[in-house]
Specification:
Blueprint lengths: L1 H8 L7 H22 L6 E4 L1 H8 L8 E5 L12 H10 L5 E5 L7 E9 H8 L14 E9 L8 E6 L5 E6 L1 H14 L1 E2 L2 E2 L1 H12 L6 H10 L11 H13 L3 H8 L14 H7 L5
Helix pairs in contact: 2-4, 6-7, 6-8, 7-10, 9-11
Length: 286
């Protein structure tokens, strides 16, 4: 199975220990997708978010989590029935990870789980002669979170995508317009621990550079569900631009840059970030 891992590692430029850990996490993310595909998960759910954008559209930043949404609301959805498929898939490529559900302390539309494995063990699995393992605490873990929205807003549209490694697999994926809707919703509504999540705005720039068209129906449903707008709000491209420009006008771009810096290689892409930059590029929203 080392050959499969080496194939997956071959696309990475590795300069330091952080690069090694990020590469392991990204490879394990794809192994998880393969396991979920084998378990039939994508008959009921779709993949979205930053990691979906990285794997299937070439987003050039590291993304930590795996985000999914059911296609149809199901408050009784059982995420745990897929854990054995994930664990078996990781074992099939020589990795030792365990999946555990995150127990919620309050009602939520999100079901969560964590995939955990020992960092030192897996550094040595991926990089057999690495001396970095000597400086890693023996109890340190690689942790990957995945979440499923069991009460999804209406209006999302989908496409089918395929991956080839660790073995061929198929996923249901939000299409580009619906992915963009989710990202704009995050830009408008999400603060992370009372701070701006700059990764959302980095992805926003990526969508615009791709010429993506936003799925307005899905975005409106998301914004209504979040109580950001009322059902009778007339969401058009022009009113959306106004909402975004208001957000940009009140944003702390220093915080936004600080958040995203650890996740990107080319730091110069953030040099122009400012209220004026985002307002100007938003003229291209369609």
């Amino acid at each position: 199975m080392q050959q499969v891992l080496n194939q997956m590692l071959s696309k990475y430029q590795i300069n330091n220990l952080q690069d090694k850990e990020n590469a392991i996490k990204e490879i394990v993310q794809e192994v998880v997708l393969c396991g979920l595909s084998r378990g039939g998960f994508f008959k009921d759910a779709a993949f979205y978010g930053g990691t979906a954008l990285r794997i299937f559209y070439g987003l050039d930043r590291f993304s930590e989590d795996l985000d999914f949404s059911l296609v149809t609301q199901n408050p009784n959805f059982d995420l745990t029935k897929y854990f054995s498929y994930i664990e078996n898939e990781t074992k099939s490529v020589g990795l030792n990870f365990e999946v555990k559900e995150k127990i919620k302390t309050r009602d939520s539309n999100i079901k969560s789980a964590f995939l955990k494995g020992n960092t030192r063990e897996h550094i040595l699995t991926f990089y057999e002669n690495s001396t970095d393992a000597n400086i890693i605490n023996k109890d340190e873990v690689i942790k990957i979170k995945f979440e499923v929205d069991i009460n999804p807003p209406v209006g999302a549209t989908y496409e089918t995508k395929f991956g080839l490694l660790p073995s061929p697999y198929q996923v249901r994926l939000y299409d580009m317009g619906s992915l963009f809707a989710g990202k704009i919703h995050a830009c408008l509504c999400r603060n992370w621990k009372s701070r701006v999540k700059g990764r959302d705005f980095y992805d926003y720039v990526f969508f615009l550079s791709m010429g993506a068209k936003v799925n307005l129906d899905n975005l409106k449903a998301k914004l209504v569900q979040s109580n950001y707008i009322k059902e009778d709000f007339n969401l058009t491209i022009e009113t959306l631009k106004e909402l975004l420009n208001e957000r940009f006008a009140n944003m702390d771009f220093v915080q936004a840059k600080e958040d995203v810096l650890p996740f990107v290689r080319d730091k110069s892409k953030l040099d122009l970030w400012s209220k004026e930059f985002f307002i100007e590029i938003t003229k291209n929203l369609k």
